[in-house]
Structures are given as structure tokens and as C-alpha cells.
Amino acid sequence: MATGSRRVLGLLLGSLLIGFGGLAVPKAALAVYAIAQYGEPKYPADFKHFNYVNPDAPRGGTLVLANPNRLTSFDKFNPFTQRGNPAPGLGYMFESLTTGSLDEVSTAYGLLADDISIAPDGLSVTFHINPKARFSNGDSVTAEDVKYSFDTLKSPQAAPQYAVYFGQISRAVMLDPLTIRFDFKERTREMPFIAGAIPVFSHKWGMKPDGSHVPFDQLAFQKPIASGPYLIEQYDNGRTITFKRDPAYWGNALPVRVGTFNFERITYKLYSDGVARLEAFKAGEYDALVEYVARNWVRRDIGKRFDNGELIKREFRNHNGTGMQGFFINLRRPIFQDVRVRQALDLAFDFQWLNRQLFFNQYTRTDSFFANTDLQATGKPGGGELAILSPLRAQLDPAVFGDMVKQPDTDPPGSLRANLIKARELLADAGWTYRDGALRNAKGQPFVFEILDDSASGSSMEPVVATYQRNLQKLGIVANFRTVDFALIQKRLDAFDFDMTSLRMPDVQIPGTEQDSRFGSKSADQQGSDNMNGLKSPAVDSIVHTLLGAQTRDQLLDATHALDRVLMHGYYVIPHWYTASHRVAYRNTLAYPATLPLYYVAEDWITSTWWFNPPAAASSFASAAAAAK
């Protein structure tokens, strides 16, 4: 079970930055095809394709998919602005100067750029643009377009998180028509990767016949002019959209593109809720489903099409960090500002019961912002962590210097009753006592709050919330559950108008600037930012700054462990659960490469590397599957 991901840095940077991290700055500026954090890139300069693709995959056919996230409708083709809901799949249209691979955590290869030069002092990076790079209108991609894209994304016309994310890039300088340099405010290992991941679009996007422009933040259904492999072919009523492979796509022969984007068309159909979406898949209305609901996977992803082999279920292992999924607590609300209150709310969440009764024991409790990686803090802080934490001791809870937080457990010898007794004690210490039929503060105000979720995922969260509500009621706390349409919840989240809400913070393999956007004080009051908790902590700001300045892998680990330790001791999120596998159901006419990537988003993996089987092969597969049963 999962609740969908919050739109972080628009919709694109998560995929553009897969595997990116910092790098060792060379002693002298040198033009190269790729940059790596430590050592050398996995693939040599003359590599032909990534190992996890099929270079001989046939191209053709129409892949039909459903909502890839909470989105149930769309009203624009511009994914970079705050207002409105962008259509799914727009990432297929936009490319960046570099791209990552899915089997490395810290390498960037040239995409629009054909070489990369890092200054000896690490304060700038220069990219030369491939002369073959073209936009969908046939124009060459130029340094002017790259600068225009960067300047626009940092401007007030774009969603505010871009200005934060690109904040350490002071300027973009055109050196010639195909060469651009990015200057940094300070040297960090991450900056060349961030510059390389800037989405690039033509300065002609939104240009009127008279040469004037539609303001960037008013672009709606003006089709983007970008350099990616797909174009918008048609759309209907904000509920369906079809992308067609650009027959003149410039990048077909690039090693980073060989074996990728094999479907002639990709169509998205947006369904109003999870039940309608699941039934539509079982009826054959679309081709692949990434299942996030454990109950569905076991009990509902079944039927005659599964029995006869037309539909296949498989779990695909991944090595992704889990990110953080949970109930995010809004510190802007006075009732949540005491850490003892937040810890009490955590104690009332009974994961073990949920895992047994609802999840078929398919999940592990999330106990870190970086779970399933070596970035996760464990035990007591080591010497490197203490060097970061000790100067901040006066600002930190003393518990930070002890054992890492362990999530409450109700398996014997633990129990929900024991956890609730401890929660009651913490609430009493914070000034909340039970009287007159409710938990009340010194002013007599009852402890009442709202858990907000969108209607598309609300049905899957309802039994989880109902169980949590029942436990909170034993403490005298009233938690009201409200579901609203995706468009409304997005507006409310952008305005931080919620008490508690279920979210998933996307994972990162190498933490960097996104941590500042998520937890930095300067983002807390900036509507539309990713600091959902409203966290304002000089200590966290200091740790994030140390993280961004890490010069070795060990320094990065120490800083990330320190950050994880402080965040978990702050109880800003009531963590949910995770699995290290992607659950995918798909039509037997689809095929995928024999070698799986290591770090990947299932939906993106399907659209970027899968292909259609020839009909004869699909028929043979179905017959074999039926015989096996």
C-alpha cells in the first residue's frame, strides 16, 4: 500500500537526477563524456548502450497506462509552474544536458551535451552542446536555449522550489552558440550534476505569431518545444493524452538512448479512483499496473485473464532507498509543536497489527529517512557524526546523542497498551490531560485534528486511518479523516493548509540539495516548497550545509547519518512502511530486458526500456503459461 508521491521539483527532476551525486573535482579542467563521484564511470567512453536495455528491442505499438500518481485530471502542459495540474508523461518531452544510469548511484553521462568540463577550483562547469541536438520544431538546441531555460526556472514565473534547488548556481554564461558555463556560489560536489540536470526547452515555447510571448506562468495547452523522444499527439478533456514518438528524434543513436523508448505511442487514461483503475486493468483497458496496495496484489489482482496467462504478476527487486512515506505532521499548527506530542502520536500507530491484518505481512516498517541504504543512521553516533552534532548540542534534544530511534513495536513482549500508556505520559508532560470526555490542554481546548488525503488513494488509506483513529480515541484524541480531489489537495498542500497528511517523499541514492528544499528553514514559509513539515531548525540547516559540502563518501555518510538521526528524533513524520520490490502486473504482449536495473522507478522503467512482443511470441507465452497451470 502506498499513497502516491508529492510533486517534488515539478515532475521531472526526480528522473533526470536518478543516480546523480557529487564528484571528485579534477586537478585541471578537462572535457569528458561523463563525470563520476568516486573513481571512474562504469561505462567507458566508447560504450554502445547501458547493460539494462535490449539494444535490439523492436519498436512500435501503443502502450496504454493509467494514472501514474494521484492525478485524476490535468489542465496544462507546463510541468514547471505551481498552479494547475500538469498532464502525465510530459517528462518524455524534456531532456537535460546530462542523464544518469540506472545501475550507478553517482555518474552523469552526456545527453544534450557531448562533453563536460569542470573548473579546477570546482566553482563552475562548462558543457558543450551536441551539434546534432534538435528541438521538436527542428531548431538546433543552443546555449541561448539552455540559459533561457535556467533563467526561467529560477524566476518567479516557475514553481518556487526550482529557485531553491538551483539557488547555488549564480548564473549561466554563454561562451559561444554551443557552449555554456554555469558558475556556482560555492564549491560542492553536487553542483555540476545539478547544472547538468536542468530541463531544457526552446525559447520559442509560447511565442505568438507577432514574436511576443505568453508569460511562462500562463502557459497551459501550448505544446512544449523540447528535445525529447516524444511529442503530444492528442488529448481529450483533461482525462486522456497520447504521446507519439518523434520520427525525427535526434538522439536515437546516442549510447544513453539505444534500446530505450521503444513504444510508438504512449497513452495515459486517468481514472477517478483506485477501484475504477484496477477494474479497468482487469477488463483490458490498459497494459501495465504498478501495484502499491498489498491487499489488491493478494486479493484483487486476480481473475480469468491472470489464470489464462493474458495478464502476468511479478515482483521485481530494486535497490532503491525507500524515501519517507508516512503521515506528515504540520508544525505550523500549534498543537504539534511539542516533540512529546508528536512522539505520542507515533506511539499510537500500530504497524504490526496493520501488517498482519491488512498487508499480508508484505511490508517492513520505515525507520529512517534513508532506509534500505547505508545512509541510514544506526546505533549511537560515531566519531564523524559527533564532530557534526557536538557543536550543535545546545540546540538538539539530548536523546540525539543516544541510540537511534526505534519505531514502536506491538509484537510480544511489546503491546499497544504499553505504547499508549507511554503516549499518555508524554501528553501529560506536554500539558494535555483527559477530562470532560476529551484530551484537553490547560485552556480546556480538546485535541482535535484532521488527516487529509486525496480521494483517489483515500479508499486504500481508509482502513489504516480507521485503525489509527481508534487508537487515538483511547487517548482522548479526535482525528477526523477527510478525502478531497487531487486538484484541491494539491492547492492545500502548496498553501500548507493541512494538519496531517499522507505523503511519500521520493528516495534519493545520493542526498544533496533536495534536503535543503525539504528541511531547510528558508523553505518553510515559501508556499509550494517541499518543506511540508514547516521545519525551521538552525541545527538542521547546519547539518544540511555540512552534507552539501562533503568532499568524501565518508563525510557524506557522516552528515547524512547525523541528519537522519536529528530528523527521526524530531518525530516530524509518523513513518509508514516499505518493500524492496516493485509489484507489476502486465499484459503478456509486453517484454522487458533480461538484466534488471538497480535503482529505478517502476513506471519509468516500463516506459523507457520495455517493448511489445511479436504477436506469435506473445501467443506462445500465453499457451505455455496456461499449460503450466
TrEMBL record:
- What is the protein name for this chain? ABC transporter, periplasmic substrate-binding protein
**What keywords would UniProt list here?**
Signal
| The UniProt record lists the keyword Signal | yes
Gene Ontology molecular-function annotations: peptide transmembrane transporter activity
- Ranges for domain Solute-binding protein family come to 109-504
GO CC annotations? ATP-binding cassette (ABC) transporter complex; outer membrane-bounded periplasmic space
Superkingdom, according to UniProt? Bacteria
Is Glycoprotein tagged as a keyword? no
Which GO biological process entries does UniProt record here?
Answer: microcin transport; peptide transport
Record InterPro entries: Peptide/Ni-bd (IPR030678), SBP_5 (IPR039424), SBP_5_dom (IPR000914)
User: Which organism is this protein's natural source?
Assistant: Caballeronia sordidicola (Burkholderia sordidicola)
The residue ranges flagged as biased composition, category Polar residues, are 512-532
Disordered as annotated region, ranges: 510-532
* A Pfam entry, by short name: SBP_bac_5
